[in-house]
Design goal:
The structure is a homodimer of 410-residue chains. Chain A is of the alpha/beta class and 410 residues long. The first copy, chain A, has a domain of 205 residues: 3-Layer(aba) Sandwich (Rossmann fold). Chain A is built from 16 helices and 13 strands. Chain A has a six-stranded mixed β-sheet with strand order 4-5-13-10-11-12, sandwiched between helices. In chain A, strands 8-7-6-9 form a four-stranded parallel β-sheet, sandwiched between helices. Chain A has a three-stranded antiparallel β-sheet with strand order 2-1-3. In chain A, strand 1 and strand 2 form a beta hairpin. The longest helix of chain A has 15 residues. Chains A and B meet through helix 5, helix 6, strand 8, helix 7 and helix 13 of A and helix 5, helix 6, strand 8, helix 7 and helix 13 of B.
């Protein structure tokens, strides 16, 4: 793993050897998120555009020399990554944006982008000899973590707020996770999970605590660049909750930029729901993050205290990214447009990116000649009740041709 | 399309030129399902094991010369097929079956195997210049049809029994389908759909009516053979409702056998739910099909009158296939085992195949040395309420480490 130089704290900037630390900066505590820094000379000797062109492993592991794992570490058997990048022709026409692409990350094994992070995280768990893993989450991160853990035979312990919807828990339980419904908030579940992982030695996947997740998430950017034959887009839209996927997208393009494979880092535009937009507000005002009481239909980005705030804001400022907000109505409209114009069914948080793009087009933030990618981070089947808010059910008819004709006239 | 010789009626055995007929045999009516017959010499000149090894199109279209479509017909943009075939190591150990593979077809765009059939069907619709398409179904076939139609801008009209669950309709509506909830049974919706398609000129995807769907479904068998480097399994387990997927699996292997690419057709074992097993009963008794009142948790195979009965029984007898039945309890148990041992979440109808394999192992129908594939036809997210029947929810705990410790002891 000598391609990894150090892990660097985003707060105090102190650097550590990978074997020195496990999760966060010992000086800054849980606020000191660590970033993985690479020796790009070493990476360059092990992977190139040419070697990739000949590589028939169409999964995230094709980028192995750019991931923070040992050369011979086993990887989970589930097929993660290399999701379709659609040149969605009908959507292009509808939005009058001929350079539009849709990255459908709901096609991952447990139906969300989070599988990229869980796959890398579980390799780190195995490298440390862990047999038991944990995380706090109600949604995609947890089901993804439980899924890859099951594929390898690791026991998973998941902390969720007691109020988590039953449907979200079904997938977890099917994967054999041990669930702890906590009488309290997500934040309490998060802290309890860290306490428990210390006490019982469980390997922890908590967001913006485990430093390796962003490295998994960045593979979506690596794929976008390779699928576009290294001609990177002008703009990339991505939904934002805790801000980890946002940082992952920046990190992937930054890696390629440092390697000299691409000439510039695309402008990444983070999209938050209006009712849960603390990162947008901080970015807009250039002021410190202030927690909010989140309220949006897009549950996967319904975050009041973005755990990866510091890193996300740094990335936005450093790479001249932007933020936009969208209403729940705009999210539901984007869900309909995406389904009707491309046959892709995204969950509300997953299509917020597209809603943001539509708003940005309207406001002139995107030009018609731009090459633009919208990342759809999760499948709509994850939240069918939200989808039902976006549509209306027609009236029943008698089983006769006349009734069909009458209905068609209505 | 000269690789297609004729369409042959499974009842009267009369053969037709492809341009002569659209759906079923003019003599036998809707009972006369047509089968696509190929000129394998012509196919052999256009595709080979070697040409496939060099083909980087990892979708069902890599088998284009073996599909009943014109050489230059456009195909839908959604990425269909080449789903993972997992050598599910932990499941192998659990079932003491070292030659087991899981084909996860829930990884298709709308999360079920039906996308294979819809993709081929929609190409036929386009070839006929159709702008509007229809089908009757409550489940996977309809959402799949609406999805590929949306990706191409074709309008879809879907007939469903009024009692269809709202959740199943959400996906359809998101894809912009025009839904007709019919005051009546599935059979009435089916017949009304055919009437309406004749009246309005809509291209029809009804199961065992449109002759091209089995050709799409067969690609799952083509992939299994290629993914196993043409060393075909001894046995393939697949869930059975109408019997179309069963015939598709037989057809794929039969094509490869006729081409001389494989030495034998694997034994295909169809699995029905005990509460909806008319094909099993007919096969077992060698008597004609008798309709049943279906009752099973596995809604996608909850079929009382199997529409593809004649062809499915013919295939079972001709290729020495078998049928088994499983209880709803065994289906839910298979769902848990699959999730816990492999990280794959299947819907009840999708995992009935695995439940059948487990029963067959118990009864000595499968030997430990056999190479066996179980096809998982749909993703569990399609029916979360069924999954909740398979698991039980633990009690909520206080947000303290002591409560975690106590819960672990329980």
């Amino acid at each position: 793993m000598d391609q990894v130089k150090t892990l660097k704290c985003v707060l105090c900037q102190r650097e550590y050897e990978p074997q020195e630390v496990e999760y966060t900066c010992p000086l800054c505590g849980n606020a000191g998120i660590l970033e993985v820094l690479y020796d790009y000379d070493k990476v360059s000797k092990r992977i190139s555009k040419e070697s990739l062109a000949k590589n028939s492993d169409y999964s995230i592991w094709r980028y192995r020399p750019l991931l923070p794992i040992k050369e011979d570490s086993p990887t989970p058997p589930l097929h993660v990554g290399w999701t379709p990048l659609y040149p969605a022709f009908r959507l292009r026409r509808k939005l009058e944006l001929p350079g539009l692409y849709i990255k459908d990350d709901g096609r991952n094994p447990t139906a969300s982008l989070k599988d990229r992070a869980s796959a890398v995280g579980i390799v780190k768990a195995l490298e440390r000899g862990a047999h038991e893993v944990t995380c706090a989450s109600t949604g995609n991160a947890a089901s993804s973590w439980a899924g890859v853990a099951a594929s390898l035979g690791l026991k998973s312990y998941i902390f969720v707020p007691q109020t988590a919807p039953q449907a979200k828990l079904a997938q977890l339980l099917i994967f054999g996770a041990r669930i702890f419904p906590v009488k309290g908030s997500y934040d309490q579940a998060f802290d309890l999970c860290i306490e428990a992982s210390r006490k019982f030695g469980w390997y922890n996947r908590n967001t913006a605590y485990n430093p390796y997740l962003v490295e998994g998430k960045k593979t979506v950017a690596l794929e976008i660049a390779e699928q576009l034959n290294w001609e990177v887009p002008d703009k990339v839209f991505v939904s934002v909750g805790d801000g980890c996927i946002l940082s992952g997208v920046f990190k992937g393009f930054a890696d390629l930029f440092h390697l000299g494979w691409i000439g510039r880092v695309p402008q990444v535009i983070g999209v938050q729901a209006e009712g849960a937009a603390p990162l947008y507000r901080a970015w807009k005002s250039r002021k410190p993050l202030e927690p909010v009481e989140p309220k949006t239909i897009a549950d996967s980005i319904s975050v009041g205290i973005p755990r990866n705030g510091v890193m996300a804001l740094r990335d936005l400022y450093r790479w001249e990214g932007r933020m936009v907000t969208v209403t729940d109505e705009e999210i539901l409209e984007a869900m309909r447009i995406l389904g009707q114009e491309s046959g892709v069914f995204g969950e509300p948080a997953g299509v917020a990116s597209l809603a943001g793009l539509i708003k940005a087009l309207r406001e002139g933030m995107v030009e018609k000649k731009n090459k633009v990618v919208a990342i759809i981070t999760g499948n709509g089947l994850k939240d069918v009740s939200a989808a039902l808010h976006a549509v209306s059910m027609p009236e029943a008819i008698d089983p006769t041709l006349e009734s069909v004709e009458q209905a068609l006239k209505r």
